Amino acid sequence: xxxSATSTSEETLSARELDNYGAATLANFYSNAxxxxxxxxxxxxxxxxxxxxxxSDAAIYDAGGGGSF
Length: 69
Known about the structure:
mainly beta
């Protein structure tokens, strides 16, 4: 789980690659708050057979430097 349905903080992935091979979820307490900031060419890779779910309206966004999902 990335973030928390009971937390207002967001998570940052910076200058790294995160490979998901299982079941990942993204959550944030406020529906209009961002959940995952991608910074400094960070990359999130959802591998074949993996799943990614959003809990609430949390978002993934580029925080500068060309992050990708």
